[in-house]
Amino acid sequence: MRRWREAVQDGIKRGITRLCGWMGVSSKQFGSVKGRHATAQAYHKKVGSAHAKILPFRPEHSSQTAMPKTGGAAVHERFHSPHIHDHPATFLLELTPGRVISPTGFVIGTDDMLIDDVSALYFGKTRPEPQPYPILRALRLPPCRKFPGTLAVITTNNTHNYFHWLTDALPRVEIVRKLLPRALEEVDAWLVPSGNPLVAETVAKLGIPADKLLTADSQTHWEASRLVVPSPPGMTGSVPAWVAEFLRKEFLASGTEGGFSKRIFVSRAGGASRRILNEAEVMGCLGKLGFQAYRLEEMTFQDQIGLFRSAEVVVAPHGAGLTNLLWAPEGVKVVEIFSPNYVNVCYWLTAGRVNAEYTYLCGKGDPPPPGTDSHLIQDHIEVDLAQLRKALATIGLG
Predict the structure, then answer these.
(1) What is the per-residue pLDDT for 126?
(2) Other residues' Cβ atoms within 10 Å of the Cβ of residue 91
(3) Residue 68 to residue 79: CA distance in whole angstroms
(4) Could you say which DSSP state residue 366 is in?
């Protein structure tokens, strides 16, 4: 019954959208947007250079990451996932005019259609088709406001998260800076996510003052005279080499100097998910090898950079704190700890950007059947100490 009711509602909404299109009613007044363009190139082909311009940044390319060390054991199937080393072409899209909607920056062209590859729900080749954009089903969008100037879209999906802000969103600033040499002067405002205190701190380091920040929320709906939209910097979860180089160039030197252990255990004891249930036992094992536990959520951005910049070995449960591997020295040793019900290889790929010596282990419990992904992202982890010692031995620690 519920599915039938939802199908009827969707049918009514589609009918209203078609009627609005037939009557020439824009979604700025009523109804949803009229459809989607799969790519910025498709939109440009339709409307021409009078309303759209595409500036190329980097071509599509692939990379490779050394497989995890496992001491001869089989490598988890997730490390063989397709496309994880593929990096789509990057570019800058200029719309005159253009609209942007929602906290994550859905981009709408002059034909009242969404432009898919610069609108952020999923990035890269593994995204589902069609993407479930809510604005394609909405009967009324937030009120549209005029922005009489140049607005750059930086906000994207999941930017409350440390990893996604630093690797999916912040590099979009670099695309704008590189392709518009006078961007810091000619861009009147930068649309950034709300609720992440790291945003203002990091963009200020890139030369963007606080009075040029425009925060996006659920009521965001701007029509800018000129909308500047950098493409996603890569497939989310797979950090391109240029992104790692950009972040290290801009932020590595700002790390706090000295006073940190070179052997780091990242504790999630204060977190809501993926806590190590037997952390005291784990630290009993690691402490004998000179490890010290750190709660990264209690540290400043500069302290996190400084901590990882001097690290020799990092042991950590899967989580955004491992984004800090981007600051680590070449060849750092890494042991990542997963729940058997959630293996996400994004930090293996991140570790590859500093040529880390990487291994992993899964906590106690039965894994899902091969070829399936339980995706129990919140699962806490109980570590098998024998498996932990084996993983440490794999990277030369006994």
Answers:
(1) 41
(2) 20
(3) 8
(4) P
Q: In Å, how far are 17, 90, 106, 133, 254 from 307, measured between CA atoms? A: 53, 32, 36, 39, 12
pLDDT of residue 24: 61
Four-CA torsion 144, 146, 150, 151, nearest 10 degrees: -30
How far apart CA 76 and CA 370 sit, in angstroms, is: 10
Asked whether the beta carbons of 361 and 388 are under 8 A apart, the reply is yes
pLDDT digits (tens, 9 = 90+) for 179-230: 999 999 999 999 999 989 999 999 999 999 999 999 999 999 999 999 999 9
Backbone region of residue 291 per phi and psi (left: phi > 0; alpha: psi in -120 to 50; beta: other values): beta
Provide the 8-state DSSP code for 277.
T
Q: Percent helix, strand and coil across the chain, each rounded to 5?
A: 35, 20, 45
Model pLDDT, residue 163: 97
152-178: burial string, b at 16+ Cβ within 10 Å, e else: bbbbbbebebbbbbbbbbbbbbbbbbb
Residue partners of 251: CB distance under 8 A and separation at least 6: 202, 205, 305, 327
Per-residue HEC secondary structure of 111-170 comes to: CCCEEHHHCCCCCCCCCCCCCCCHHHCCCCCCCCEEEEEEEEECCCCCCCCHHHHHHHHH
> Which pLDDT value is given to residue 72?
87
Name the packing angle between helices 198-205 and 170-179 (round to 10°). Answer: 30
pLDDT-flagged residues of the chain (< 70): 1-24, 120-133
| Structural domains in the chain plus CATH codes | 30-240 (no CATH), 255-394 (3.40.50)
Predicted model pTM: 0.91
